[in-house]
Amino acid sequence: MSISTLEIQPSHVEQEYRWTLNFGPQHPATHTTLRLILHIEGERVVDAVPDIGYLHSGFEKIGEHLNFNQYVTVTDRMNYISPMANNVAWHHACETLMGIDVPKRCQYIRTIITELARIGDHLLCNGAAALDTGAFTAFLYAFNQRELLYDIFETACGARFTNSYTRVGGLMYDVTPAFIEKVRSFVRTFPRVHADIVRLLNRNRIFVERTKGIGVLTKAEAINRGASGPIARASGVTRDLRKDEPYLTYADFDFNVCCSTVGDCFHRYLVRMDEIVESLKIVDQAIENLPPGPVNVPMGDRAVLPDKDLVYTTIEGLIAHFEMVMTNRGFHAPREECYAAIESPNGELGFYLVGDGSDIAYRARCRPPSYIHFSLFPHLIKGHTVSDIVAVLGSLNIIAAELDR
Amino acid sequence: MTDTPATLEKLTARFGERSWTFSESANSANRRIVVPSGQVFQFLEFLKTACGFDMLAELTCVDYLHFRGAADRFGLVYGLANTGTNERLIVRCFLNEPDLAVPSATPLWESANWFEREVFDMFGVVFQGHPDLRRILLPDEFEGHPLRKDYPLRGRGERHNFQRITREDS
User: Fold this and answer.
1) What's the rounded Cα separation, in Å, for the pair A173 and A156?
2) Is the peptide bond before A291 cis (omega within 30 degrees of 0)?
């Protein structure tokens, strides 16, 4: 933001009661690093100019220099609240580009971890939104459950926070019986905590009064401004890529798309709370019907490193492993371009990939939902008071690492 | 995804067959049309008003500098979506230096605002008629456009605008 744009506009000079307030980039309620320049009139926000880019670290440029399996570690750092969903989105796009169909078991496991990531993301978003608007206890309940989710992810892949669990054509490891047991126990115990959070917040007078009617987004505006995910659904857009463009195995499961027509902060919270229940239904169905079989595509497809048992005991396995790790002998992406998106917890998370025949993307564009949603912010906050800023920011679930990439 | 033939028929009726081409990506994942860069706004407007593409889900750019066999330097990507029928269409147009300007899509979709600012920031493509075309992710003093292929991964632009203070100066 240059100095010139920060100067008070001539019209503001005449009206001395209108002044400029800087919000962020280091402010507890922004959660991460973003900045707003507010023009306020008393308590009312007349205009807000977002200033972003503090966390820009050139992820898309890095994507042009790392191969399709290496880049998954960078996607972890985008939306670090639900890294599993980013991993799945990235390799979904890679596999769409290369035309790889992953085995059924892999699809089921990816579905389970994406839905668990969605539960974790919504818990954090709602917990933090409640924390900002004066309801501290719900935040602790939510974080306690996120701890269980971290344990589940740790059982699956060894990492709690930055998982990097997927690979082109499969997964890092198959899941163990311990993972299945932990997911089952989570599915059993979580509804009680969900009910507790709902009881703490749904009729909490302070929380309701601070969020109801604040930051209203109409359906037409939501579509025109490109909103997706829970924010669009809270405004009455019935778009959910899990239903509309079924990827992975979402067509196999019975679940509902949660919508509202009001579109304010409170209903964004309600939609997220209901989506958690639907995600839990999907996890329950998927874990009980987990098909047997391999998680990776067969060795002949030349997409994943073969199983270590094969490498150590058979000559074919050894050759396949050796070729996969050699430069110019591994997998190749076609000279083709494609856009593939999944319904991430925050909305449509898509990647536009250009392959040039090597195992490194020529262009790895990420379409981050937070970026679009933060551009809604000036529109949503206009006419509300300064204290509503945190309520609107909390309900949009802006993750600055994904916003700036 | 079923309505694309109807969209193509409408496009043929409006723009003729010569000026644009339709193709599918290798695994039928995407459907895309390539339009002339001078007419891109007319195509987008027609797709929005007559074909029901009410959402601009994606707008980005690709630099084809080192891409084998590429004829043009920059390719813009407009990812349109129809929230009613769940149809998607990718509109491509190609740009070459020195004329890196296309009309802005902000009059059609508000979401184009920040998308176009990012493309301007990273590639230097100018969107005519954009209400607020400033850099968005990088600071205003930044020189160059980092996602262009002639911009190195390391070694340029990192600290260029910080004044170097030596012991004598201080």
Assistant:
1) 7
2) no
Q: Does A2 touch chain B (CB under 8 A)?
A: yes
Residues linked to residue A348 through DSSP beta bridges, in sequence order:
A343
Name the DSSP class of A251. G
Residue B123, classified by CB atoms within 10 Å of its CB into exposed (0-12), middle (13-18) or buried (19+), is: buried
Record: contact A53-B136, CB cut-off 8 A = yes
> pTM value?
0.89
Please indicate if any CB of chain A lies within 8 Å of the CB of B155: no
Residue A17 has pLDDT above 50, yes or no: yes
Measured CA to CA, the distance from residue A373 to residue A229 in angstroms comes to: 10
Find residues 78-137 of chain B whose CB sits inside 8 Å of chain A.
79, 83, 86, 88, 90, 109-111, 113-114, 118, 122, 134-137
The answer to whether the Cβ–Cβ distance between B138 and A53 falls below 8 Å is yes
Q: What is the pLDDT of residues A175-220, one digit of tens each?
A: 889 999 999 999 999 999 999 999 999 988 888 988 888 889 999 9
CA torsion A326-A327-A331-A333 (nearest 10°) is 180
- B159 Cβ contact partners less than 8 Å away, ≥ 6 residues apart: none
B63 burial (CB, 10 Å; 0-12 / 13-18 / 19+) is: buried
Q: What CATH number is given for B4-128 in this structure?
A: 3.30.460.80
Identity of the residue in B29, B77, B83 whose CB atom sits nearest the CB atom of A340: B29
In chain A, domain spans: 3-51, 60-404
Question: What percentage of chain A reaches a pLDDT higher than 70?
Answer: 96
H or E, element range at A211: helix A205-211
Residue A245 near chain B (CB below 8 Å): yes
Left if phi > 0, otherwise alpha if psi is -120 to 50, otherwise beta: which for B11? alpha
Q: Do B146 and A61 touch (CB under 8 A)?
A: yes
Question: In sequence order, what are the residues at sequence separation of 6 or more whose Cβ sits closer than 8 angstroms to the Cβ of residue A340?
Answer: A92, A93, A96, A97, A247, A350, A351, A353, B29
Strand, helix or coil at B23? strand
- Chain B environment of A225 (Cβ under 8 Å): 109-111
Token code pair at residue A137: 């206890």
Cβ-defined contact of A339 to B54 (cutoff 8 Å): no
How many CA atoms, within 13 angstroms, populate the side-chain half-sphere of residue A129? 32
| Residues belonging to chain B | 170
**What is the CATH code of the structural domain delimited by A60-404?**
1.10.645.10
- Positive or negative, the CA dihedral A123, A127, A128, A130 is positive
Single-letter residue type at A261: T
Reported as a single tens digit per residue, the pLDDT across B2-60 is: 457 788 888 888 877 777 888 887 677 788 888 888 888 988 999 888 888 889 999 99
ipTM of the complex: 0.87
| Mean pLDDT calculated for residue range A285-308 | 83
CB contact under 8 A, B77 and A352: yes
| pLDDT 10s digits, A335-355 | 888 899 999 999 999 999 998
The token pair that represents A207 in the structure block: 């929380």
Predicted confidence at residue B1, as pLDDT, reads 46
Q: Decide the pairing of beta strands B31-34 and B21-24.
A: antiparallel
